[in-house]
Design a protein that fits this description.
five-stranded mixed beta sheet; about 20% helix; about 20% strand; 9 strands
Length: about 220
Amino acid sequence: MGLKLPESGRARIGLAVAGVVAAVAGITLGVTTLLGVTFQGTGEAQQRDASMTKKGALTTANRDRLAICVQAVGVDSSLEGKAKASVEAALIEVAKHPRWDASGLGVAPPIADTGCPSPPSVLRPGVEIEQMGKGRIFVLPFPCVEEASYYRLFVFILPPAELERIFGEDYEQTLSQQEAFCGGQYGNMGVTGGLYLTPADLDDTQLLAEKLKRAVGLWYPTRW
């Protein structure tokens, strides 16, 4: 049974992954998801305004659940299938976070797709990256968009040497804004995150779960 996702994601959806079941169960509304539980689909979200923000970790009105895309960049493209499965497994652990529901991420089961609708923001032509230590970076120009992607998080798989070039030798986090609303009432506001991983990161479910928690905002002690 196919998944009902926006046009940007439908072409990349594979069959539901069996066996990754009960950990995020509890919402059973209709169509089998990639994590083995069920949900209604995203038709309603498609009709919402992708240029509007909303409260919570999903950040924009066109998102009805946590959706993540994965893409291999400069490495074997076959890693995308592995990355998708690894992210799905890690999301089971992420969904156990005590603020999962309060953040708005628990509104429906999360999903992961292969292929992202735009390339890594840190690899744009002419981009300037300032390393601030421990993997914290400041990137100019800011990745401004008028409408946000359906995906709350883009996960890119890069060669280790490329991550070191971008984030520094002693990186602990490898995050950057992928999309932002710029020039509004509150200035530039990041609405979509980019998480950068090496192929080896895909083999450690707990490590990946911690990285995903940070990337979707669950590492802030009092934020939600």
